[in-house]
Specification:
The chain is of the alpha/beta class. The chain has a single domain, classed as 3-Layer(aba) Sandwich (Rossmann fold). It is built from five helices and six strands, in the order βαββαβαββαα. Strands 1, 2, 3, 4, 5 and 6 form a six-stranded parallel sheet that branches. β4, α3 and β5 form a beta-alpha-beta unit. The longest helix is centred in the C-terminal third of the chain and has 18 residues. The model has no long low-confidence stretch (mean pLDDT 97). Flavin mononucleotide (FMN) binds next to α1 and β4.
């Protein structure tokens, strides 16, 4: 069993729902998951010690939130090189956040990112059964990549 941190920010609960569905998929594949709001993680010490990381943020004004920007600077100090990763986020129309975070994890932190790419869902999709399944499947794929 591997340890996974799902860390997210969410203003109206859509990205939070995604975080919980992704965690379900990871748990179905036998992984030990902590789901945390980024505001509850005070320093890089709260980020170290996991085998896999899935970071989530909604898109506001075609950008990630300032809280997520600060969190990514903490994550940089945690040295996540080679760790398995994924990224996700809810949006209505443009959806910059999930690919932006995925890109940072891949190219700056040099993590071993899922070949599925970022999970970038509209909030209408999050509210549907289809969105729940997409999140669970993303979690399951990450769980399989992590292995036993
Ligand atoms: C002020 C404001 C700005 C937004 N800007 C964008 C945007 O630039 N692109 C986009 O796709 N969605 C945008 N949205 C929509 C949110 O990303 C969407 O409601 C999302 O599901 C919120 O997720 P959350 O519930 O996790 O906070 C914006 C919403 C608000 C209220």
């Amino acid at each position: 069993m591997k340890k996974v941190l799902v860390a997210y920010v969410s203003r109206t609960g859509k990205t939070e729902a995604m975080a919980n569905y992704i965690a379900e998929g990871l748990r179905i594949r036998g992984q030990d998951v902590d789901v945390k709001k980024i505001a509850a993680i005070e320093s890089e010490k709260g980020i170290t010690g996991y085998d896999g990381y899935v970071f989530g943020c909604p898109t506001y004004h075609k950008d990630i939130t300032s809280g997520m920007k600060h969190f990514l600077f903490k994550a940089e100090k945690a040295n996540l090189t080679g760790k398995i990763g994924g990224a996700f986020g809810s949006h209505t129309h443009s959806g910059e956040s999930a690919p932006m975070i995925f890109d940072t994890m891949q190219h700056v932190f040099k993590m071993d990112m899922t070949n599925l790419g970022p999970l970038n869902l509209t909030e209408a999709m999050v509210d549907s059964g289809e969105g729940m399944k997409a999140c669970q499947d993303y979690g399951k794929a990450l769980g399989e990549k992590l292995g036993a």
